[in-house]
Amino acid sequence: MITDRLRSIQSSYGDHTPTLVAVSKKQSDEKIIEALDAGLRIFGENRVQEAQSRWTHRRAPYPDLDLHLIGPLQTNKVKDAVQLFDCIHTVDREKLARAIHTHAPDMPCFIQVNVGDEPQKSGIARDNVNAFHTFCIDLGLNIIGLMCIPPNDDNSAPHYEWMRDKARDLKLPHLSMGMSRDYETALHYGATHIRIGSKLFGARE
Ligand SMILES: *Cc1c(COP(=O)(O)O)cnc(C)c1O
Question: What's the pLDDT score for residue 29?
Fold first, then answer.
């Protein structure tokens, strides 16, 4: 049951209640309905098209839905993305930053950091985060924080610690970090947005 799983996740919150982004990608309609019935309204999706088919028709019955894009975004999908989503966690290059600013100048955005310096992963390299942040601020993009996905097979703690310190340096208030396997560690290092899929919904289809 989602309500029980939700309670178990919430029981590890400390003094600061984070924003729980319920990652609904590849989940059945039944699970989505169960989550909505449990009162969840903040959902994360990693593909624009899949998110459109799952959520566009639910905007009217649930006007307080808050949809977050947590997957890679191609510039030719930005127009569609900004119509559906309320927050974008994956700003990772100048061209994308420009396109989002053009179509939705106020969109709350996170800079995605490739915190483990993995060649196959998107995100700004650690050494380039300051420069990219400056670029986004000069552009006028509404950057609210940093986001990362640490390497699968690593201990997340040192990665999250680096993220916490970098967000402090840049005076950014938000940190999107922590998934099913490591959200408790992320909370320890000051995550304000945890992105939880399987731990909440069960395995994906
Ligand atoms: C799928 C996904 C999640 C959720 O992963 P779980 O391990 O199921 O909690 C979180 N963040 C991103 C970016 C994802 O793509």
Answer: 96
